[in-house]
Design goal:
single chain, 143 residues, alpha+beta, CBS-domain, three-stranded mixed sheet, two-stranded antiparallel ribbon, 5 helices, 5 strands, elongated
């Protein structure tokens, strides 16, 4: 299954934020949307960074509650690993495992077009495994 197929099922909505937004507001945005990361984009939907719950926990743990007043740009990951719509679940799993992150912005022609989370990948892998098991049961029953 490709990223494009996943996005066609789940949708292309991505929560984006401005790099100057305070981390406290980022926390509220993540909680309101029940998500683990937000993508920082410029006015043309070009990815500038990503900020996750892990980024926030690290900065608060190291500098205390005052970190919540800092802008997202001060803690966001600037070198964002992205994926294309043509990539497969296997490729996504490799990228996520190697990079130790759980969210991959999807970029097409330089613009943000979606986001894939580890939850999206797991959901699709489980569905594939169930379909494979069902096909095997049908094959055995027919034999």
């Amino acid at each position: 299954m490709t990223v494009a197929a996943i996005l066609s099922e789940k949708g292309r909505k991505v929560v984006t934020v401005d790099g100057e937004m305070p981390i406290s507001r980022i926390c509220a945005t993540l909680a309101e949307n029940r998500i683990g990361a937000a993508v920082i984009v410029d006015g043309n939907q070009n990815v500038q960074g990503i900020i996750s719950e892990r980024d926030i926990v690290k900065i608060v743990a190291s500098t205390g509650g005052a970190a919540l007043n800092q802008p997202a740009s001060s803690v966001m990951t600037r070198e964002v690993i992205t994926c294309s719509e043509e990539e497969t679940i296997g490729t996504l799993m490799e990228k996520m495992t190697e990079g130790k992150f759980r969210h991959l912005p999807v970029v097409h022609n330089g613009k943000l077009t979606g986001i894939i989370s580890i939850g999206d990948v797991v959901k699709r892998r489980i569905a594939e495994a169930e379909m494979d098991a069902q096909a095997m049961r049908e094959y055995i029953a027919a034999g």
